[in-house]
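Service request form, structural biology core

Requester: graduate student, group of Dr. S.
Request type: structure prediction, single chain
Budget code: on file
Notes: please return the result as structure tokens.

Sequence provided:
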Amino acid sequence: HARARDAVHAALDTEALARRLAELGLSPTIVKSAAMNRETYLRRPNLGRRLAPDAAISKSDHPFALVIADGLSALAVERHAVPLVRALIALSPQRWAGASCCVALQGRVALGDDAGERFGCQLVVVLIGERPGLSSPDSLGAYLTHAPRVGRTDAERNCVSNIRPEGLGYEAAARRIDWIAAAGVARGLTGVGLKD
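Core staff response, request fulfilled:
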């Protein structure tokens, strides 16, 4: 229980994460949600779903975007986001090597709708620390949304969860995410209408 509580309150080192992502050839932007601190983030989930007004995200020509957010477990992001992104790039470099990318503080899943709309991408993947359980404080989730825009619902997303060596391994998770991404763009939808 203490490890789960610590994971919820831990801070993500965005600069270190951005450097590690840059080593993979990405150019991540660091942004914040409208929840400007952790206390507000935990008390006002709606603010974590939108970018701060001064978030600097530029339009991109790339059809795919990665949003990497601390969520409820910065530990999960610090441990598993980079190995998962590395596995995605190795599996399908044409999709992921040049993807738009941002690292977000105090982010919820729906933050990807706002970021993806600003990027102008066809599909956004949000990698986010999942709510810690008593057996796992470091589980990473991936949420995929076709044609992201503010106002999308959870029914319009696909989720790949429990990404970590003790759960769904990086390569297996990358294969599932890549398949959903390709199928989502080809079929023009994600969520309940797209089953893997």
